[in-house]
Amino acid sequence: MAELLIFDNKITSIFQLLGTKENDISYSVGFGLANSNHFLENFLKYLNIKTPFQPTKIKIHLQAYEKDKGFTDFEIIQENEFHIIIEAKRGWNFPSQSQLNKYATRTSFINSTTKDKRILVFNESIPAYTNAHFGVFTLQNIPVQVISWNDIENIISKSKAIGRDADNRMLKELNIYLENISTMQKKDSNWVYVVSLSNGIPNPSWSISFRDVVNKHQKYFHPVGGGKGGWPAEPPTYIAFRYDGKLQSIHHIDSYQVFDDPSVHFTTIPKGKWDPHYLYELGPAIKPNHIVTSGKKIVRSMRVWAMLDLLLTCNTIEDARNKSDLR
Predict the structure, then answer these.
(1) What is the pLDDT of residues 303-321, one digit of tens each?
(2) Residue 56 has what DSSP assignment?
(3) Those residues with Cβ within 8 angstroms of residue 318's Cβ, 6 or more apart along the chain or in another chain
(4) What residues have CB less than 8 Å from 142, skipping those under 6 apart?
(5) pTM value?
(6) Which of 135, 221, 253, 261 shows its CA 20 to 30 Å from the CA of 65?
């Protein structure tokens, strides 16, 4: 088969022909829901909709307009049963509360006689990040729920397993499309987040250093990211630590949780109310079989990303970072 490209970008899904803007994503998911009963039914089950599934009674509206309230991305409605407004976002972005208020106060929504009204937000966020950076759970007594694109992809995959060939081909293309627009770190990611570890006590009231946190407790913590601090918004798959001018160890992050009081996990740190932090449980240390120095441009507390295989084979972290970027 010949390759199809748009502006040198390879087209692997028919949905890419629509584009990758937020409206294009809404149209694609709306089309998928309208044309696959399995996808639609599994999506409603995921939402725990109690109404028996009757697809012929369901309407999906794209870009529904109301004066002074703007457009919704799409709505899923079954008269007298449920009315769901969905806002689709790219990346880790959230809609503003004023935008959601417009949805919650739409005349058609307020006057709807449906038993179950909801507002949904689709984006790439994970629950810990959502709780730390969004926190809108109801508006005008209407539940607001954030659903990750990863969860949508999982629902599509589940629907493919039971669908007919034509449905499956369409859902496969939809999954490819969503994977291509997603920047979420995958579980098989080869990327490693490399951080510097100080041996000093960060605060006079502490009696533990960050090297102790890693080497004695096999843990590490940092602020939930996504803001100006530059910390990751989503926990990476691997994390590496450097000090004394060289790479010390690489660890798989086996699990994580979010905390706001460090004393719950470390008796050597006083009780206090912190901004949300990720706490990682670290797997066994992975070490290169040769010395990997930091490099001239990896200095002080600088944090970088590099690929696992390159960290293990290059002579410097700087070289591993640069070669990773070229890939």
Answers:
(1) 999 999 899 999 999 999 9
(2) G
(3) 294, 295, 296, 297, 298
(4) 104, 109, 117, 118, 119
(5) 0.67
(6) 135
